[in-house]
């Protein structure tokens, strides 16, 4: 699913499941500072002259700090979290450099055992082991499915400013996670006698079942059950968790959901190290808030993705200039800063650096809030939906899409163009052409900055000087520039535009009472056609603006079960046409991506999906 932004900017996938949670993988924020101030918390730089030291410990750079180990929750679904989680947890399959699905049998296998009904069997390998020595079992897959299926929720809850949801009490159950694919699995799955296999039966066909099966285990079930139910023996804890879901024991599930939602949210090393138990080649050993995150080889790892580098420290460097300077100085060996023409030029001028350029998997966009009592909410006008629609349309007419591309993106990529689709990437040429021809975005809004049209729409609505609060990454230089252009244009049309940006913007997107429009990037976690569903369906995990349209919901439900590619494109075109007609928001551009790699490290490349340049970390080698 989409996640909040990626390396260049900002926030999940979520990954609500298939890319349903594509939650905005938050594109990491770009700091305003012009230089990186190294503090006492900063990890030591591997010795430049010590090949032995360099081979066992390296630093790399990312632009947003880690804040949750459970990237399957609505709160944790961001690239900043997904990358370290990818390194510290194994999976049955992953995307290779060509975005083809590569299998990892040392962790397990999946197979479709029936088409009607759709049945998928997951089997964990004997070598699939948690870092505390506990085997990975069916309980882990059941926890990931059940928490995101919605089947067990009996109430709703809201996140606080720290991302935590209110604790459930008594028999109240709420899991802060959702996935349209898992929601199609209504019946409790079949578990093998040895507990290593689990078979899921879908209530309807699901087009992206394989994407769900690629990564079937989330946070460790035995740790969750121990913390929630007090069961210390891992095998007994797993069984207690399975029984709680199977029997719908709401008293137990209430406690389990509390642990699942909140216990894995932390910005520094937790006192209880069981919260860092993982199944992958590395284990997170040290987290300094807003400074760095260190991973070390997992001594209990039995899989095939054994890395040659003993320790990897991800230094948090929001400022792209500072990250490039750190690369030049040998303080980090890899960086993927927010791309600008100056940053690219500097990287290309370094003799000891290899530079990769490509379009990334993130796209910039503006979303509007439909239910917060603000200028785009019919409730603001006594329930007058037509008036609210005209105000939304007027605001979108002012967004200077072409000017943003010309002034900010083209200096880096002279061939950059507007992105005119909510769901299809420009590289998917046939589908993109078909969808954009039908959705009306270009025909309706063109390059934006249509001040006269915006004024006319406000006049038709009878609304004068509406105030729009815009949320974006406060420490992101490019976003600041975009906001300034947006503010200038909208105010010329009669809007009052307020800056309510925050460095914690991604964690605040659920707090819609604080803003009316958001500016950020969505990054894909998969190639699944259902990836965008959570962004637009009623109640979707990534539908922060609380948009709701019955026709869109109906089409998205059809999309989940449609395998014919031509019909998939037709459905997406119809969905996007409705989004455009309802003035849901507007797309702007596809992110240009630049990766700087020291010639001291080999095997590093990047893919346009999360986990970006970390996709094959086990193949990295340092000379």
From TrEMBL:
Pfam families given in the database record: SBP_bac_5
InterPro entries, alphabetized: Peptide/Ni-bd (IPR030678), SBP_5 (IPR039424), SBP_5_dom (IPR000914)
SUPFAM superfamilies for the chain: Periplasmic binding protein-like II
One GO CC term, this protein: ATP-binding cassette (ABC) transporter complex
Gene Ontology molecular function terms on file? peptide transmembrane transporter activity
GO biological processes? peptide transport
In terms of Gene3D superfamilies, this protein maps to: Dipeptide-binding Protein, Domain 3, Periplasmic binding protein-like II
- Solute-binding protein family domain: residues covered: 111-542
Name used for this protein in its record? ABC transporter substrate-binding protein
Species of the source: Propioniciclava flava
